[in-house]
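Hi R.,

Here's the input for the adenosine-5'-triphosphate complex you asked about:
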Amino acid sequence: MAETGRRRVLTGDTPTGSLHIGHWVGSVKRRVEIQETHDCFFLVANLHAFTTRADKPEEIRQDCLEVVRDGLAMGIDPNKAAIFLQTEVPAIMQLTYLFAMLLPYNRVMRNPTLKDELTVKGLEDNYSFGFPLYTVGQTADILAFRAHEVPVGEDQVPHLELTREVARRFNKMYCGVPDKAPDEDHVELGGVFPIPEADVGRVGRLIGTDGVQKMSKSLGNAIQITDTPKQVRKKLGKIYVGIDNRQPTDPGEVDPEKNPLFQYVETFIESPDEVADLRDRYARGDNIGDGVVKVRVAESISALLEPMQERRKQYESDDVVMDILHEGCKKAIAATEETLEMAKKAASLQFFDRTVTI
Ligand code: ATP
Ligand code: MG
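And here is the predicted structure with adenosine-5'-triphosphate in place:
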């Protein structure tokens, strides 16, 4: 793999449904910026989709293509970033197994995002062995690329902390990096893995249209990239505004923590003056109904989505998306085979050379 001297980025999505505006503000917007200056690898975590839908392989396969289309629609450029499928990259699976040995079982199970996901998805008493294993797999997704930066939403920060711990432990156990070495010196001191950093977007946790949970593909509370202006208006129309039966002359709640509508105002209305004006009038109850604010937010969201929907049309053909994935997988395999060889050498596991081709 040619060395470019640029910093590496790894991030991605689980193909559990179409991408939504939470992905845009939490991670994808940053990906579109960073692809200009970094070596970017964007993963479709199709194996992780099996944690909850092992009985629906055909749907997952279709969702892989849809997630890629949505990312391209949002501005990811396949000539600048490699977009690839997790299951086509064998080094990730091998590193998952190895890293599972470096993490105490209780440490994995204590992960607050894992606990939240089990609760929110109603899986507490009945989840596969693979469900917690996916958090270990995610450490391998990142470290297989020796990534420096990981653009993600807030919910992923605990996963990234786990990744940082694995990298430190591996470098100390197998590469002779001293115990107290600062994170930024690990590679210079002989470590295989840089200690990666989370790069959380401006809005790390966009609330869903249910007004309670994080906007999520799996929860049916999302405004999708492909939603028409009518669908956007309808979804926003239902959002709870923090007070029951508010009248236009009632003082309204403008704290985004308490009124999800105002998180949308602050996130999607571009003009700071307009945001300030809406906040002021709404807080005083200056003859401003919820409907007026919802319509303004809906217009802004649809204006954001319109060029994405236009761009998405270029990628309607499955063959075009498959070609992009094929190219991306080749690049991902080259990068990760190099890492795997380094890791195997360090851990005395390198017996023979190998080449993986697709
Ligand atoms: P699922 O319900 O299947 O977990 P998801 O909507 O959480 O789906 P992921 O594929 O898990 O989507 O997340 C992809 C990326 O988007 C991650 O970096 C995640 O942090 C970010 N992200 C997802 N939802 C939001 C949100 N509501 N606000 C900000 N960032 C988000
Ligand atoms: Mg998620």
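One thing worth noting: Residues 8-206+317-346 form a domain with the Rossmann fold fold (CATH 3.40.50.620).

Cheers,
M.
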